[in-house]
Each structure stands twice: as C-alpha cells, then as structure tokens.
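ABC-type hemin transport system, periplasmic component (Methylomicrobium album BG8), 287 aa
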Amino acid sequence: MKKTQRAMSILLWLAVWLCPALAQGEEARRVIVAGGALTEIVYALGLADRLVGVDITSSFPPETEKLPKIGYLRNLGSEGLLSLRPDLVLAIAEAGPPEALAQIRAAGTRVEIVATPNTPEGGAQKIIAVADALGVSSRGQELEQSYRAAWQATQQAVAGYRDRPRVLFILAHTGGNPMVAGRDTAADAMIRLAGADNAGAGFEGYKPMSAEAIMAANPEVLLITTEGVDVLGGLDPLWDHPALRLTPAGHAHHIVTLDSLYLLGFGPRLPDAVQELARRLRTPETE
C-alpha cells in the first residue's frame, strides 16, 4: 500500500512538472473532453484543433475517431489522462470517479464540470459553459442563438402532430440485460419532446425488461439505439421476446433506431434529433 501511494505521489509530481499550467486569463490550448455532447460543442465552435483527447462517448463528428481516447467518462484514470499534458479538462457532471478528478486538479490541471440537464435549455447552457471555458464567449453566443432558432423551428414542427404514440425505449447499448426507460430519464425526456407518450411512465428510472413491465407498457412503437441493436445481435431477439410479440409494436414490428449520442446526448444537435424522432415515431421502420 505504501509503495502504491509513493508511486502515485511521484506520478502526480511528474504531472505537475509536465502539465502546462494556465496563467490568469490565458486560453486553454490542450483540451481533454469527457462527454460526447461537450465534444460536439467544441467542434461546433471551430476549436477542434485544441483537442488532445476525448472519452469513448465522443463519437461525433467522425473526426473524433482520430483523437486519443481516455476511456469511459465514469471510469477515468488520472495517469493516462495527464500523460496527454492537458491544460484543461472539460467534463459532464457524471464524469469520475471523484478521486481521479481530484488527482487531476492536484496536478495543476484546470477541470471544468458542465451541468447536463436533459432539457432544451440545458443544451443552450452547455454551449455557453463550453465557450466560456475555452475563452470564446462571443462564438458561444452566436452558436447559442443558432441553436435556439433551430429549437423554435423544431417546436413548431412537433406541434403540427396530433397523435401521441406510446413509445417504449429499450436500453441495451450499455451491455448486460436490457432495461426499459421510465420517468426522469434522458429517453423519457426525448419521447415527450417529440410529442409522444413514454409507455414506461408508470415507474421511475430504468427497470429490467420483464414480461410484466412490457405488458403494462403495451407500446405502439419501440425505440432503441443503433448500438443497442448491435449488442443484441440484431432485432430478432426483440421480436422473439414472448411479451413484446403481444404488444401493438410487436404485432406491427414498429421500431425506431437512432445513434445513442444523437438521441440521448442533449447536445447541439438536439433540435434535429427531436424533429427526426417525432417524424419517425409516426412513420416507424418496419423490421
């Protein structure tokens, strides 16, 4: 234990020596981002050249594939992250563990945590927070105005729909047993923003995809991420599920698949994502 603590102390000392510290008012030039929506904003601000690393949820735009990866945002390692010599780490509130973030700060690296409410207003707040952290507030205001205009157009488009389909979101892209989404989840927020009803609104959070939960939900449309379909090995496991087969969605094979970051990220593409979801829920794919 003592040897481990001594080794960590040495690593942190080296990190303090190697990592460039920002002077007062100096713009960050070596930025690491933990959170796909934040990475999208950095690109939208035209500052991709400042990125030296991103987490694995940062999958858009495609250029992010070329950047060094720091792992999953909830399981960050300070040693690997600091080896990239960042002068700023931008992270969403879910990033951690806290010990790793504390070690990064102790090494003299600035860490900015950005709140991530699952609301359209939250998307605007992220834009301003990222722009301010990067020292480009005026660019952030321009991007925010564009985002708000796009969101207004989306609201008008969604208001034109009169039906409210019952939609059940299936969480499968994280691995393990599939779950279904209830209230107070990102999926619930997206379904409601698209002018539909969450078929899982009878419970809070996520719960196992049991026959009881599915029959109670009785969805007309299924919603799942493309990554979730990959994890399941295709759509057959859904249509073969004995409870799902008995629902209106199962009878009609009505399903909508979208990229997880696009669907659940609540980033700058939110207006487009909501408008596409609203349209496709009314004209779902038949698989």
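Residues 1-19 have pLDDT under 50 and may be disordered. The CA atoms of residues 167 and 221 lie 5 Å apart. ok done for today
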